[in-house]
Design a protein that fits this description.
With 195 residues, the protein is of the alpha/beta class. It is built from nine helices and five strands; from the N terminus they run βαβαααβαβαααβα. Helix 2 packs across helix 3, helix 4 packs parallel to helix 5 and helix 6 crosses helix 7. It is globular. Bound molecules: adenosine monophosphate (AMP).
C-alpha cells in the first residue's frame, strides 16, 4: 500500500499512521520527524531547518526532496509500500513527487484527508504542547501553521480529488470511529483487508 496522509496540523496524522503501519507493515515516513531528526543531529543543515520549523514556515522543497526521496525508495523496497505523513505539502512538491513516482514505479494509491474544524485542531495542538513540549506548538505558531496549511497545502485537496484518489474522513470523532471508517474506505479500494 502506498498512502499519503494529507491533513492540517492537529487532525491526527500521527495517531492514524501508527495503526496503519502496524496493520499493513508499510513504513511510516513522517516529514516532520525526518526534519526533527536532522535538527537533533546538530548539523549545520539542522540549524537552518530549526529556523523554519520553529516559525511554522515550510522548509524549501529542495531540502525536503533530499530527505524524503531516499526514505520513500527504501521504504518501498524494504516494506512493499509507504505511508507518507506530512509530505507533499505544496502543489510543486506534489507534482514533482508524481513525476519521480512515475519514473520509479512508486505511484501513490490513495490520499487520506483528515478534516476537523479549526478550534478542534487548535485545542488538540495545545494539548500536545502540554504533553510533548514541541517548540512549534505555541499559540502564535499554531495559528501560522494553520494559515500555511490553508494557503499552501489546501490546494492539494482538489488536486487529489480530481485524480480520483482522495479519501476524505471526518476526524472530529472518537479515534476508534475514524479508524473504522478509514479502514472501510481503504478496504473498498482494495488497499486493506476488512479486518
Ligand atoms: P509536522 O510534524 O508534519 O507538523 O511538521 C512540522 C514542521 O516541519 C512544519 O511546520 C514545517 O515547518 C516542516 N515540514 C514538514 N513537512 C514539510 C514539507 N513537506 N514541506 C515543507 N516543510 C515541512
Amino acid at each position: 500500500m502506498r498512502l499519503v496522509l494529507l491533513s492540517p496540523p492537529g487532525a491526527g496524522k500521527g495517531t492514524h499512521a501508527a495503526w496503519l503501519t502496524a496493520e499493513t507493515g508499510v513504513a511510516h515516513i513522517s516529514s516532520g520527524d525526518l526534519l526533527r531528526a536532522e535538527i537533533a543531529r546538530g548539523s549545520e543543515l539542522g540549524r537552518r531547518l530549526a529556523d523554519y520549523i520553529n516559525r511554522g514556515e515550510l522548509v524549501p522543497d529542495e531540502v525536503m526532496f533530499d530527505l524524503i526521496t531516499p526514505a520513500v525508495v527504501a521504504a518501498d523496497r524494504d516494506t512493499g509500500g509507504y505511508l507518507l505523513d506530512g509530505f507533499p505539502r505544496t502543489l510543486p512538491q506534489a507534482l514533482r513527487s508524481e513525476e519521480i513516482g512515475r519514473q520509479q514505479g512508486l505511484t501513490v494509491d490513495a490520499v487520506v484527508y483528515l478534516t476537523a474544524p479549526e478550534p478542534v485542531l487548535v485545542a488538540r495542538l495545545l494539548g500536545r504542547a502540554a504533553e510533548q513540549g514541541r517548540a512549534d506548538d505555541d499559540t502564535a505558531v499554531i495559528a501560522h501553521r494553520l494559515a500555511v496549511f490553508a494557503e499552501a497545502t489546501a490546494p492539494l485537496i482538489d488536486h487529489y480529488r480530481d485524480r480520483g484518489i482522495l479519501i476524505e474522513v471526518d476526524a472530529d470523532r472518537p479515534v476508534a470511529d475514524i479508524r473504522d471508517d478509514l479502514r472501510d474506505r481503504l478496504a473498498e479500494r482494495g488497499l486493506l483487508g476488512r479486518g
